[in-house]
Design goal:
By secondary structure, the chain is an alpha+beta fold. It has one domain: Arc Repressor Mutant, subunit A (Orthogonal Bundle), CATH 1.10.10. It is 42% helix and 11% strand.
């Protein structure tokens, strides 16, 4: 697997870290806003959508699919099956 450094802004890094630390768990846009931007941030779910789009672009074709949109909820991170071979057996995707 090719390794390369990503040029992420602070909020993109925090957003990715939050999702990666909770693999397979859908995170609502409100939850992501509170966790990454803070409870006092004035914004809406569209802010999360824009940052997710930028993050996917920076991840590139090989990894952008790991951030999955969960309709009417938000987003979740799905790691490589090679990293967690038991995930398929547990019915997680």
């Amino acid at each position: 697997m090719e390794r390369r450094e990503l040029d992420l802004i602070h909020l993109e890094f925090e957003l990715l870290a939050h999702l990666v630390q909770r693999p397979h768990h859908a995170q609502s846009r409100d939850r992501l806003m509170a966790a990454v931007w803070g409870y006092d941030h004035i914004g809406d779910g569209r802010t999360v959508d824009v940052h997710i789009a930028r993050l996917r672009r920076k991840l590139g074709e090989a990894h952008r699919h790991r951030i999955v949109t969960v309709r009417r909820v938000g987003y979740k991170y799905v790691p490589d099956q090679q990293q967690s071979p038991g995930a398929a057996l547990c019915g997680r995707s």
